[in-house]
Amino acid sequence: MRKALIVWGGWPGHDPDLCASMIRGWLKAEGFEVRIETTTEAFGDPAIHDLSLIIPIYTMSKIEKADALNLCAAVRGGVGLAGHHGGMCDAFRESVDYQFLCGGQWVAHPGNIIDYKVDLTKPDDPIMKGLKSFEHRSEQYYMHVDPAIEVLATTTFTGEHASWIDGVVMPVVWKKRYGAGRVFYSSLGHRAYELDVPEIRTLMTRGMQWAARE
């Protein structure tokens, strides 16, 4: 049985406890044995090197360098990493090691909760297959991203809330390699209920499956 670890905590505005419970249920339905922890020290546990998948849900906060480096080493060794929204890519802002691992970092969501479109860039990718571009109402994440990521979906900013980004095409969903490990990220899912949007739930469950080590 594949083993997964969910580590949740940090800023409560992203419903980390509810998201952890939902994602735990999805993974168990896919046959994973799932452990849940609530402190960043879990990333420093040598046992994580034997996992199939790690899900961080830990907006902002801090992580000790040794714990971040152990997490990075585990993924380089083949453990999968997957997550969403600020729980993965607005976590541990001071840790450049962690940001290098994830492939991107949140910097703004102009206009806060707004209507925007998610455009699929690789509809034939197994993670996105059968899905179509869709409208969504939530935070539209503006991010600093690693050029090495493989972009699966994007969104385009209008400039209504920040004129200098008018027309900017921003990655929303991506995957990447990090050593022997696979990393998946979706910026969608500001609140837990958004994870039940059919498109978001589908790409998240497939993305986690893709990232997980067999």
UniProtKB/TrEMBL annotation:
<dbReference type="InterPro" id="IPR029010">
    <property type="entry name" value="ThuA-like"/>
</dbReference>
<feature type="domain" description="ThuA-like">
    <location>
        <begin position="3"/>
        <end position="211"/>
    </location>
</feature>
<protein>
    <recommendedName>
        <fullName>ThuA-like domain-containing protein</fullName>
    </recommendedName>
</protein>
<dbReference type="Pfam" id="PF06283">
    <property type="entry name" value="ThuA"/>
</dbReference>
<dbReference type="InterPro" id="IPR029062">
    <property type="entry name" value="Class_I_gatase-like"/>
</dbReference>
